[in-house]
Specification:
Layout lengths: L8 E5 L4 H12 L3 E6 L2 H13 L6 E4 L5 H5 L2 H8 L4 E4 L15 H28 L4 E5 L12 H21 L6 E6 L6 H6 L11 H10 L11 E3 L4
Parallel strand pairs: 1-2, 1-4, 2-3, 4-5, 5-6, 6-7
This protein binds NADP nicotinamide-adenine-dinucleotide phosphate.
Protein backbone atom coordinates (compact mmCIF):
# COMPACT_ATOMS: atom_id res chain seq x y z
CA UNK A 1 0.00 0.00 0.00
CA UNK A 2 1.16 3.54 -0.61
CA UNK A 3 -0.07 7.10 -0.09
CA UNK A 4 -3.44 7.66 1.51
CA UNK A 5 -4.35 3.98 1.50
CA UNK A 6 -1.43 3.19 3.86
CA UNK A 7 -2.59 5.72 6.46
CA UNK A 8 -5.39 5.62 8.98
CA UNK A 9 -8.41 7.29 7.41
CA UNK A 10 -10.69 9.77 9.20
CA UNK A 11 -13.79 11.54 7.99
CA UNK A 12 -14.23 14.97 9.56
CA UNK A 13 -17.46 16.95 9.28
CA UNK A 14 -17.38 20.69 9.89
CA UNK A 15 -13.87 20.75 8.45
CA UNK A 16 -14.18 24.21 6.85
CA UNK A 17 -13.68 26.21 10.06
CA UNK A 18 -13.62 26.20 13.84
CA UNK A 19 -13.06 22.99 15.74
CA UNK A 20 -13.55 20.65 12.76
CA UNK A 21 -10.83 22.41 10.75
CA UNK A 22 -8.42 22.21 13.71
CA UNK A 23 -9.22 18.50 14.11
CA UNK A 24 -8.53 17.88 10.41
CA UNK A 25 -5.16 19.65 10.66
CA UNK A 26 -4.22 17.81 13.85
CA UNK A 27 -5.11 14.47 12.23
CA UNK A 28 -2.94 15.33 9.22
CA UNK A 29 -0.11 16.30 11.56
CA UNK A 30 -0.45 12.83 13.09
CA UNK A 31 -0.23 11.24 9.62
CA UNK A 32 -3.91 10.43 9.12
CA UNK A 33 -5.56 10.83 5.74
CA UNK A 34 -8.45 13.28 6.12
CA UNK A 35 -11.77 13.11 4.30
CA UNK A 36 -13.09 16.62 4.87
CA UNK A 37 -16.75 17.58 4.71
CA UNK A 38 -18.44 21.00 4.80
CA UNK A 39 -20.41 23.20 2.42
CA UNK A 40 -17.75 25.91 1.91
CA UNK A 41 -15.68 24.59 -0.98
CA UNK A 42 -13.07 27.38 -0.92
CA UNK A 43 -12.48 26.83 2.80
CA UNK A 44 -12.01 23.10 2.14
CA UNK A 45 -9.49 23.91 -0.59
CA UNK A 46 -7.62 26.15 1.86
CA UNK A 47 -7.62 23.26 4.35
CA UNK A 48 -6.15 21.01 1.66
CA UNK A 49 -3.42 23.61 0.97
CA UNK A 50 -2.63 23.82 4.68
CA UNK A 51 -2.48 20.03 5.03
CA UNK A 52 -0.09 19.81 2.05
CA UNK A 53 2.03 22.55 3.61
CA UNK A 54 2.34 20.40 6.73
CA UNK A 55 3.70 17.59 4.57
CA UNK A 56 0.50 15.64 5.19
CA UNK A 57 -0.17 14.77 1.55
CA UNK A 58 -3.52 15.62 0.03
CA UNK A 59 -6.91 15.55 1.73
CA UNK A 60 -10.08 14.15 0.19
CA UNK A 61 -12.56 17.03 -0.07
CA UNK A 62 -16.30 16.41 -0.18
CA UNK A 63 -18.35 19.62 -0.35
CA UNK A 64 -21.72 18.56 0.98
CA UNK A 65 -24.74 20.00 2.77
CA UNK A 66 -25.46 17.72 5.71
CA UNK A 67 -29.12 18.71 5.49
CA UNK A 68 -29.21 16.62 2.30
CA UNK A 69 -29.59 13.10 3.64
CA UNK A 70 -29.40 11.49 0.20
CA UNK A 71 -25.87 12.94 -0.27
CA UNK A 72 -24.82 11.37 3.02
CA UNK A 73 -26.15 8.02 1.82
CA UNK A 74 -23.89 8.30 -1.24
CA UNK A 75 -20.69 8.79 0.77
CA UNK A 76 -19.96 5.20 1.70
CA UNK A 77 -19.59 3.50 -1.70
CA UNK A 78 -16.73 5.66 -3.08
CA UNK A 79 -14.95 5.63 0.28
CA UNK A 80 -15.20 1.84 0.39
CA UNK A 81 -13.90 1.58 -3.16
CA UNK A 82 -10.91 3.83 -2.43
CA UNK A 83 -9.98 2.88 1.15
CA UNK A 84 -11.95 -0.28 1.99
CA UNK A 85 -12.51 1.01 5.54
CA UNK A 86 -12.83 4.04 7.78
CA UNK A 87 -10.79 4.27 11.00
CA UNK A 88 -12.22 7.46 12.45
CA UNK A 89 -15.27 9.68 12.27
CA UNK A 90 -15.00 13.13 13.86
CA UNK A 91 -18.49 14.61 13.67
CA UNK A 92 -17.74 18.25 14.34
CA UNK A 93 -20.32 20.01 12.15
CA UNK A 94 -22.94 21.87 14.11
CA UNK A 95 -25.59 24.54 13.74
CA UNK A 96 -26.58 26.93 16.52
CA UNK A 97 -29.80 28.00 14.82
CA UNK A 98 -30.99 31.08 16.70
CA UNK A 99 -31.35 31.74 20.38
CA UNK A 100 -35.09 32.20 20.65
CA UNK A 101 -38.00 31.51 22.97
CA UNK A 102 -39.32 28.00 22.40
CA UNK A 103 -42.76 29.32 21.46
CA UNK A 104 -41.23 31.49 18.72
CA UNK A 105 -38.77 28.99 17.20
CA UNK A 106 -39.65 28.80 13.51
CA UNK A 107 -39.82 25.56 11.53
CA UNK A 108 -36.70 26.73 9.64
CA UNK A 109 -34.69 27.05 12.88
CA UNK A 110 -35.93 23.68 14.11
CA UNK A 111 -35.22 22.00 10.77
CA UNK A 112 -31.66 23.32 10.66
CA UNK A 113 -30.69 22.36 14.21
CA UNK A 114 -32.36 18.96 14.18
CA UNK A 115 -31.09 18.11 10.68
CA UNK A 116 -27.47 19.19 11.16
CA UNK A 117 -26.91 18.31 14.82
CA UNK A 118 -28.98 15.13 15.05
CA UNK A 119 -30.42 13.60 11.88
CA UNK A 120 -27.28 14.06 9.76
CA UNK A 121 -25.28 12.23 12.42
CA UNK A 122 -27.75 9.34 12.42
CA UNK A 123 -27.51 9.25 8.63
CA UNK A 124 -23.68 9.25 8.90
CA UNK A 125 -23.80 6.37 11.38
CA UNK A 126 -26.13 4.49 9.06
CA UNK A 127 -23.90 5.06 6.04
CA UNK A 128 -20.50 4.64 7.72
CA UNK A 129 -21.06 1.86 10.27
CA UNK A 130 -20.06 -0.83 7.73
CA UNK A 131 -16.86 1.06 6.86
CA UNK A 132 -15.92 1.62 10.52
CA UNK A 133 -16.59 -2.08 11.05
CA UNK A 134 -13.92 -2.87 8.44
CA UNK A 135 -11.27 -1.08 10.53
CA UNK A 136 -9.30 -2.91 13.22
CA UNK A 137 -10.38 -0.14 15.62
CA UNK A 138 -13.12 2.07 14.20
CA UNK A 139 -13.62 5.13 16.39
CA UNK A 140 -16.33 7.80 16.25
CA UNK A 141 -16.56 11.02 18.24
CA UNK A 142 -19.50 13.40 18.09
CA UNK A 143 -19.35 16.99 19.31
CA UNK A 144 -22.05 17.71 21.82
CA UNK A 145 -22.66 20.62 24.18
CA UNK A 146 -23.31 21.33 27.84
CA UNK A 147 -26.71 22.53 26.60
CA UNK A 148 -27.70 18.91 25.99
CA UNK A 149 -27.69 18.24 29.72
CA UNK A 150 -28.48 21.72 31.03
CA UNK A 151 -30.91 23.41 28.66
CA UNK A 152 -31.39 27.09 29.33
CA UNK A 153 -33.91 29.74 28.35
CA UNK A 154 -33.77 30.55 24.60
CA UNK A 155 -31.53 27.59 23.78
CA UNK A 156 -34.24 24.98 23.07
CA UNK A 157 -33.61 24.32 19.32
CA UNK A 158 -29.88 23.70 19.82
CA UNK A 159 -30.21 22.03 23.24
CA UNK A 160 -32.92 19.62 22.07
CA UNK A 161 -30.90 18.65 18.98
CA UNK A 162 -27.79 17.96 21.06
CA UNK A 163 -29.81 15.98 23.65
CA UNK A 164 -31.13 13.84 20.79
CA UNK A 165 -27.55 13.39 19.54
CA UNK A 166 -26.44 12.26 23.01
CA UNK A 167 -29.23 9.65 23.14
CA UNK A 168 -28.37 8.43 19.62
CA UNK A 169 -24.65 8.03 20.25
CA UNK A 170 -25.02 6.38 23.66
CA UNK A 171 -27.53 3.90 22.18
CA UNK A 172 -25.26 3.12 19.23
CA UNK A 173 -22.27 2.71 21.53
CA UNK A 174 -24.20 0.19 23.64
CA UNK A 175 -24.99 -1.79 20.47
CA UNK A 176 -21.42 -1.94 19.16
CA UNK A 177 -19.39 -2.09 22.37
CA UNK A 178 -19.48 -5.78 23.17
CA UNK A 179 -19.72 -7.24 19.70
CA UNK A 180 -17.30 -5.16 17.62
CA UNK A 181 -13.96 -3.37 18.12
CA UNK A 182 -15.75 -0.11 17.33
CA UNK A 183 -16.15 2.66 19.92
CA UNK A 184 -18.39 5.74 19.88
CA UNK A 185 -18.24 8.67 22.26
CA UNK A 186 -19.41 12.23 22.81
CA UNK A 187 -17.15 15.23 23.42
CA UNK A 188 -18.15 18.61 24.76
CA UNK A 189 -15.51 21.23 23.87
CA UNK A 190 -17.11 23.85 26.12
CA UNK A 191 -16.78 27.50 25.15
CA UNK A 192 -14.25 27.66 22.30
CA UNK A 193 -13.07 30.63 20.20
CA UNK A 194 -15.12 30.05 17.02
CA UNK A 195 -17.74 31.84 14.95
CA UNK A 196 -20.49 29.75 16.55
CA UNK A 197 -19.48 30.86 20.03
CA UNK A 198 -19.25 34.52 18.91
CA UNK A 199 -22.78 34.28 17.51
CA UNK A 200 -24.11 32.80 20.77
CA UNK A 201 -22.21 35.19 23.07
CA UNK A 202 -21.56 38.39 21.10
CA UNK A 203 -20.54 40.37 24.21
CA UNK A 204 -17.86 37.92 25.29
CA UNK A 205 -14.13 38.58 24.86
CA UNK A 206 -13.06 35.69 22.60
CA UNK A 207 -9.49 35.97 23.84
CA UNK A 208 -10.61 34.46 27.17
CA UNK A 209 -11.57 31.20 25.44
CA UNK A 210 -9.50 28.20 24.36
CA UNK A 211 -8.75 28.10 20.64
CA UNK A 212 -9.89 25.23 18.38
CA UNK A 213 -6.20 24.26 18.16
CA UNK A 214 -6.12 23.73 21.94
CA UNK A 215 -9.24 21.55 21.85
CA UNK A 216 -8.46 19.45 18.76
CA UNK A 217 -5.80 17.10 20.23
CA UNK A 218 -8.31 15.81 22.81
CA UNK A 219 -10.70 14.89 19.99
CA UNK A 220 -7.97 13.24 17.92
CA UNK A 221 -6.94 11.23 21.00
CA UNK A 222 -10.47 9.76 21.05
CA UNK A 223 -9.95 8.40 17.52
CA UNK A 224 -6.86 6.39 18.36
CA UNK A 225 -7.02 2.58 18.57
CA UNK A 226 -5.66 2.89 22.11
CA UNK A 227 -8.75 4.86 23.17
CA UNK A 228 -11.18 2.26 24.49
CA UNK A 229 -13.87 4.29 26.28
CA UNK A 230 -17.30 3.64 24.83
CA UNK A 231 -20.55 5.58 25.26
CA UNK A 232 -18.74 8.23 27.30
CA UNK A 233 -19.61 11.94 27.49
CA UNK A 234 -16.26 13.70 27.76
CA UNK A 235 -15.82 17.32 28.84
CA UNK A 236 -12.79 19.21 27.50
CA UNK A 237 -10.40 20.26 30.23
CA UNK A 238 -8.02 23.12 29.53
CA UNK A 239 -4.46 22.43 30.64
P1 LIG B 1 -18.42 26.69 13.65
O1 LIG B 1 -17.14 27.43 13.73
O2 LIG B 1 -19.68 27.43 13.45
O3 LIG B 1 -18.27 25.57 12.50
C1 LIG B 1 -19.37 24.78 12.19
C2 LIG B 1 -18.97 23.81 11.10
O4 LIG B 1 -20.13 23.03 10.77
C3 LIG B 1 -18.49 24.51 9.84
O5 LIG B 1 -17.39 23.81 9.31
C4 LIG B 1 -19.69 24.39 8.92
O6 LIG B 1 -19.26 24.30 7.58
C5 LIG B 1 -20.30 23.06 9.36
N1 LIG B 1 -21.72 23.00 9.01
C6 LIG B 1 -22.73 23.72 9.54
N2 LIG B 1 -23.88 23.46 8.88
C7 LIG B 1 -23.57 22.54 7.91
C8 LIG B 1 -24.31 21.90 6.89
N3 LIG B 1 -25.63 22.14 6.71
N4 LIG B 1 -23.69 21.03 6.07
C9 LIG B 1 -22.35 20.79 6.22
N5 LIG B 1 -21.60 21.37 7.17
C10 LIG B 1 -22.20 22.25 7.99
O7 LIG B 1 -18.67 25.77 14.95
P2 LIG B 1 -17.65 25.26 16.08
O8 LIG B 1 -17.72 26.22 17.18
O9 LIG B 1 -16.36 24.87 15.47
O10 LIG B 1 -18.45 23.96 16.57
C11 LIG B 1 -18.02 22.65 16.28
C12 LIG B 1 -18.89 21.69 17.10
O11 LIG B 1 -18.69 21.92 18.51
C13 LIG B 1 -20.39 21.89 16.86
O12 LIG B 1 -21.03 20.63 16.85
C14 LIG B 1 -20.84 22.69 18.06
O13 LIG B 1 -22.21 22.47 18.34
C15 LIG B 1 -19.93 22.15 19.15
N6 LIG B 1 -19.72 23.06 20.28
C16 LIG B 1 -19.06 24.24 20.09
C17 LIG B 1 -18.85 25.08 21.18
C18 LIG B 1 -18.11 26.39 21.04
O14 LIG B 1 -18.01 27.14 22.01
N7 LIG B 1 -17.56 26.71 19.87
C19 LIG B 1 -19.31 24.72 22.45
C20 LIG B 1 -19.98 23.50 22.60
C21 LIG B 1 -20.17 22.68 21.50
P3 LIG B 1 -19.95 25.08 6.33
O15 LIG B 1 -20.60 26.30 6.84
O16 LIG B 1 -18.78 25.32 5.42
O17 LIG B 1 -20.91 24.07 5.77
Amino acid sequence: MSGAAAKRIALVTGASRGIGRAVALELARQNWHVVAIARAQKALEKLDDDIRALGGGEATLIPLDLKDGASIDQLAAPLFERFGKLDGLAACAGALGSLTPAHQATPAIMDETILVNYLANQRLIRALHPLLRESDAGRAVFLTSGASKNPRAYWSPYAASKAALDALVISWAAEIGNVTPMRANLFNPGGTRTSMRAKAFPGEDPMTLPTPEEVAPSIVAMLQPSYTENGAWIQFERR
